[in-house]
Specification:
With about 80 residues, the protein is an all-alpha fold. It has 4 helices and no strands. This is DUF465 domain-containing protein.
Length: about 80
């Protein structure tokens, strides 16, 4: 697996202004960004063996990250 950090600026490089605008105007969106960063950090630490986890736990973390990212993308494109 890749251990590349999937930061929001990497995932949405052309949406940074919109990300910021939604973050300051929408509390749910701001919480999604916080949740994404927290889960993404856990995935990255697991992938780099800084904080190793069981394989299925790592898979679940990746699924959580993907779900949050999908919700962020949906909100970005429908705002």
């Amino acid at each position: 697996m890749s251990n590349t950090p999937h930061t929001l600026s990497d995932e949405f490089p052309f949406e940074m202004e919109k990300l910021h605008a939604l973050k300051v105007s929408n509390a749910h969106f701001a919480k999604l960004l916080e949740d994404y960063d927290a889960v993404n950090d856990k995935v990255h630490r697991a992938e780099t063996n800084v904080e190793p986890v069981e394989h299925f736990a790592e898979v679940d973390l990746r699924k959580q990250r993907a779900h949050i990212k999908d919700e962020i993308a949906y909100m970005l494109h429908h705002s």
